[in-house]
Predict the 3D structure of the following.
Amino acid sequence: MGRLRFLFLLLLFALPQNITLHANGPPDVMAGAAVLMDVGSGKVLFEHNAHETLFPAGITRVMTALVALDHLCPDDVIVVGAEIFNVPAGVFRAGHQQGEHITVRNVLRGLLLRSGNDSGAVLALHTVQAERGRTGIPYASAERIFSGMMNDRARALGATRTNFVNPNGLHNESHVTTAHDMALIARAFMEHPVLAGIVADREFIGNSLDGVADPPTGVRTQDYVWLNNNELLPVARLPTYTQWASRRVVRRKRGTMW
């Protein structure tokens, strides 16, 4: 079983709705699995090994963000705790510090722009605390509960061959999905205006409490510089299909979508 290696969505959201595409044959796909889906209708336009079970790795964060915003408001201020120490060494981090005050929106930026595994841990714990209405939940328990919430959300979207066991995509033999399932999840992601807005930004340069109308004083905050490494971003903003298609139409990604 390999890692999911394909940009499975986000190819048609900038196109006019009445466009007709013509091709002499199926595209030459290097990835092990592929899905091209019309975001508006959900229609699958092309697929290759779409239901093969694979490891999602970092694109797990797409579902993490969706579930977090089912229970948290983007402008909520949360305090980072010891949950960040549950992320192993050597993986991508946004750089959160224990005791830092930060908005949910900015934790999402760390998750999606910086691919922060520590951001995933912060969102998982605080989402479970909000859903259960209490604090003091051990991180191991919160991660298990949050994974169940992710799986429930996946089933509701029709992603029936997916199983999540953590919020980051760190390797686990039981942490699996398919290209088709991830296309369904990513479609829901792009329909959320907050999430779609975050991944459309080229960068975030600011403070952890940026966006708070009346920020608390005397609390720990942090400044960040996060750049968006989504290589399709400049292409997606082109105004016409001719210009858009003359660039790279398909991008292969290993593990992470943004």
Summary: The radius of gyration is 18 Å. Residues 3-21, 234-258 have pLDDT under 50 and may be disordered. Residues 139-156 form the longest helix (18 residues).
